[in-house]
Amino acid sequence: MSVGQIVNLLKMKVRIVPAMEVGKNYMYLLIDQASKTAAAIDPVVPNKIEEAAAEEKVKITHLLTTHHHADHSAGNERMSKLFPGLEIVGGDDRIPAMTKKVGNGDIFNLGNLKVTCLHTPCHTKGHICYFVSSDSSVEKGENVVFTGDTLFSGGCGHFFEGTPDQMYRALIEVLGSLPDETKVFVGHEYTVNNLKYAAHVEPNNKKIAEKLLWAQKLQAEDKFTMPSSIGEEKLINPFMRVREERLKKYTNETDPIKVMGKLRQMKNEFKL
C-alpha cells in the first residue's frame, strides 16, 4: 500500500491519506464496500487521492468539501478534471468548482451509504460536517463523521468567522448528539498539541493523560491518531466539556457558552 492507512468497518471503508507536512492535513477516501463507489473528502492533493482510488479499485463519484479554506478546497478544480462528472459538494459559495450546495440536514446517498450534512458555522460561515451511516444504521460503531476544522481530537478550530455560541451549538448540540460510537475523522493532525492544552486545563483527568501518552507514541512512530470517537471526545476534549464544573472553575465562568469562548481565548495564548 503506497498511500494512506485503512479503517475497515462493516459496510464502509475509510482510507486516511495525509495531504502535506505543513499543516498536517488529512484527506479521506470514503468507500461503500458493496458498490465500490467512493467520495473524496477535502482532497487538496488530488494525485494522492487518485492513487488511493486506483489501489482500492473504486470509482470516485463525490467530493465532499468541509469548508472553503485553500488547505481543504484547493484540489477541487483539479479533481473535477481528473474525474469527469464528479459531484462536488459543499455549503459555501466560496468553495471552488462546487456543483451541489448543501445545508443543514440535507441527505444524499453514496452507493448504499447515507450522508447527512451538518451545518456547523464558526470556523467558517459555511462549514459542513458529513455524518455517514450504513443503510440499516444499526451496527454499533458503523457511523462516521468527517469534521473538517470544527472538531479536532482534543480540540476545535479557530473561531475565524463565528462566535462562541455557534461553536457551542456545533460541538455540544450537533456533533455531541451523534451516537457515542460514531468514529471521528478530523481535518488536521493536531492531537498531541491539543491534548497538551487539555492536560493543562484538567491535570487530574486520567483519560486525557492516557490519551496524550498514546498520541505521543503514535506521533513518534509517524502514525495517525485517527479515528477518535464522539464518546471519547466527551471525555478528553475540553471544548466538549464546557458544562463540567472543572471547566467552569478553570475559566472562572458559569455559562457554558462563555466557558467555550474563554477556553478558545486561553488556548490561543497557550504556550506549548
Automatic annotation (TrEMBL):
Reactions the enzyme catalyzes: an S-(2-hydroxyacyl)glutathione + H2O = a 2-hydroxy carboxylate + glutathione + H(+)
Gene Ontology MF annotations: hydroxyacylglutathione hydrolase activity; metal ion binding
Name used for this protein in its record: hydroxyacylglutathione hydrolase
Cofactor section: Zn(2+)
EC number: 3.1.2.6
UniProt-listed SUPFAM superfamilies: Metallo-hydrolase/oxidoreductase (SSF56281)
Taxonomic superkingdom: Eukaryota
Domain Metallo-beta-lactamase: 24-188
Pathway: Secondary metabolite metabolism; methylglyoxal degradation; (R)-lactate from methylglyoxal: step 2/2
NCBIfam families cross-referenced by the UniProt entry: GSH_gloB
Pfam families the record matches: HAGH_C, Lactamase_B
Annotated organism of origin: Dimorphilus gyrociliatus
Family, per entry: Belongs to the metallo-beta-lactamase superfamily. Glyoxalase II family.
GO biological process: methylglyoxal catabolic process to D-lactate via S-lactoyl-glutathione
Gene3D superfamilies attached to this UniProt entry: Ribonuclease Z/Hydroxyacylglutathione hydrolase-like
SMART domains: Lactamase_B
Keyword tags: Hydrolase, Metal-binding, Zinc
